[in-house]
Every structure is written in structure tokens, then in C-alpha cells.
Amino acid sequence: MKPAFALCPLLLSLLAGCSLGPDFSAPDSHAPAAWPALQETPAASQAQATPLEQRWWESFHDPKLSALIERASQRNLDLQIASARLLQSRALRMSIASEQTPSVDLGGGYSRARNSAEGLNDPSGNGGKSAFNLWQGDFTASWELDLWGRVRRQVEAADAVVEVAENDRRGVLLSLLAETAGNYIQLRAVQSTLAVTRENLEVSRHSLRLSQMRLRDGVATALDVAQASAQVASVEARLPTLEERQAQLINALGLLLAEPPRSLQAELLEPAPMPTPQQRFAIGVPSELAERRPDILQAEAQLHAATASIGVAKADFYPSIRLSGNVGLQSLQLSDFGSWDARRFAIGPQLNLPIFEGGRLRGVLKLREAQQQEAALRYQQVVLRAWHEIDDVLRLYNASQLRRDLLEEAVRQNRIALQTAQQQYVEGAVDFLNVLSVQGALLASQEQWVESSAAVSQALVGLYKSLGGGWQPFSEPLQTAAQG
Fold this sequence. Notes:
Elements (H helix, E strand, L loop, with lengths): L1 H15 L30 E2 L14 H13 L1 H21 L5 E11 L18 E14 L4 H67 L5 H15 L1 H19 L8 H4 L12 E2 L6 H4 L1 H22 L4 E12 L11 E10 L7 H67 L5 H35 L18
Parallel strand pairs: 1-4
Antiparallel strand pairs: 2-3, 3-5, 5-6
Helix pairs in contact: 2-4, 3-4, 4-5, 4-6, 4-9, 4-11, 9-10, 10-11
């Protein structure tokens, strides 16, 4: 019997290293060797397959934009909420991991009681005829032998859930960076449009003065003056809408920074040039996308958690053994409480073997397996959506550049046309309607050029967001209790 008894600890140690259920392995993202869109578009001459710029907003060389992003990363409430969710997941993981170690409790108590004379034995020996005191002190320890890896799989799933929360926070941060940059670019675009509109308003007023002067000289008609006045009013009517949009964007930036309304007007109301991207930019290589983009990392962690949960469900089919022990003191008199005769103890294993659960365990297992299948499909969907998003935004970036360059030429030609039309009107070669038509075309092309310039910068921001860049500089560990 002794050799067999000596093998028991070895057998228990082997069983303790057993974990039921499938082991997780990171899925293949099936990344292409190169970005497909760069093989067909002019962006290939600008994009470089070098490590992605982490602080990509600094490539716009706009100190105000960089300062706003830094402040948003520290104050934004959505980001703080995501950080709180991360702390919750870490705390939950710590609670689950505690099952890997023995639990130890120390207790004590005093009670004064009286037992029934007709019921259970009276420990006082008085047959239930008088009350008695009972002093107790206990030191209790218990530990579940994780024979089938149930607890280890639970901890593994909890670790994956922490990764889900971490990448959720990274995703919120990534969206925050892009939204802050996008709103700032829109703000500067609106201010540029305001400047263009005011410039055209001065041109319209000059045309009005010119038509009034020609009317006094008898070489123009009241129709010319009315048309010029209408043009002034029409251009001036654009200003309130643009000013309202400017205030709205300033407030939107203030909300991202957790500031009250109008708090940023003093520093943002002054117009500034629109941020323009540098000519060349780095976008990394496709194989790095699955290691950097938060939604892909989050989907992978969700698949990991679902895989580990299968092991937990399978372990529930097998017996569980809990070792427990209790050592304490018990006496009826306080003077006897510390004596050797007051000692008591209990030690032994507890076995739980599921025999009939009415299909509950099998149903839970099937549920976990179906959840893993869903998580695997969701991972494929997230990766595929990422490739589509990057391909679309690269095409958008190229299209925005081409449109901006063509509109720049349109603005130049419309300026020449307006100068020519004004000169010909003074000379009497054309009527005032030609001047108004050319001036309207110039204003429209200028506004479209501002819009297209902003679209180029916005597309680059969208590209960096789709590539998963920008959260890395702000990924410092949160202050929390150490994990168990």
C-alpha cells in the first residue's frame, strides 16, 4: 500500500496540470504582402511601407492641434469611462484568480444560549434548565484542487476579457484623436470659407459702388445697381450660417475636452491656416495591422475568452475536490477558552460529482461552442471590414487630392475671368450680368477648393485611424491594484 500511497501526490500533480477544452491560438488575419490600393493609385508615390507614425497629428505641423489632442487625451469623459471599465475588468480578473490559491479565514464569537430540555443534548449538562455561555475561535482554510483546469480556464478567459477592455479603451482613444483632429480641420476650413466670403463681399461691394458711379454718369441702369445690391446681400447672407457653424465646431471641441460651452472661443476664434498634410507619409506594412488596430485585437481577445470558456464548461462534467480544514477552540467558560482541552479540529476532502443535471451542463457546453464559432466569424468580419476601410480611404485620399488640384486651377481661372469681366463692363463691352455670373462662379470654386483641401486632410486623418495608429503614445498603465 505504501508505494501506491506515495504515487497519490504525483497523480494529483499531473491532474492539476491538465486543462480541458481547446487551447487558443491566434487566428491568421490573411494579410496581403502589400497594400492593394497602392498598386493602382498615385498615393503609391507618397505612402511609404515604413513603421507607422504614432504621433501622426504632428505631421500637420500645427501646435494648436497637437495641444488640443494632448488635452483631449487627458480630460475626455468617454475615455475616462472606458478607463473605468478597464479597471472593473482587472478587478474581476483578480477576484477570479483568487480561486487558484487557498482561502484562509479567522473567526471568533461568543453567545449566551439555552437549549430545549426536550430537544438536542444540552452542551452545558443542565438538561435545558439554565442558560450557558459558549466561547469559540476558528482558523479555517480551504482549497479546490483544480484537477481539470476549470479555474485555470476561468483565469485565462478573465485575462482575455481584460484585453477586450484594454482594446476597447484604445478604440475610444483612437476615435477621440481622429474626432478632435477632424473637428479642428473643419473649424479651420469654415474660417477659411469665412475669409473667402468676406473677400467676395468686398468684391461685391466694389461692384455695387462701380455700378452706382456708372449710373450717376448715365452709362448704367437702375437694373445694374439692383443686381449689384442683390449680390451684396446674397454674399453677406452666407456669413451668419458660417459663423454659427464655427461656434458649433468650437463647442464640439470643447465637449471632447470636457469643457463647458464657449470655453474655447478665446483661443480658437482667431482664424488660423488649415492644417495640411506633408507630402510623404508612412503607413506600415499590412502584416502589422492585426497587431495594432484595436478592433482586431479586441475581436481576437473575445475569441480567446470564448475558447477558454469551453474548457470551463467541459470541466463542469467532472468531479471537483475541495480540501478543507478547521482548527479552533471552544469552551463554556472564558477561563477554559485557552486551555489544551478546549481545542477542536476537522480536516478532510469534499467531493462533488455531477450525476444528473437534466441536460444543463450539455446545454452550457453547446452554448459555449456556439459562442466560440460566433467570435471566430466576428473576427473574420472585423478583419475584412478593416481591409475594405483602408482601401476605401486610400482611394478617397487620392480622389480628394485630384479634386483639390483641379479646383485650384478653377479658382485661378475664375479670378482672371472676373478681372476681365469687370474691365469689359467698365469699357461697356459686356453688361453687368456677366460680372455677376463670373463672380458667383469664383465664390463657388473658392468654397469648393477650401472644402476639397479640408477633405484631403480629413482623409489622411481617416487613413491613420483605419491603420490603428495614435493610441500608442497614450497607453501608460492605469493605476490599479496588482493583478492576482
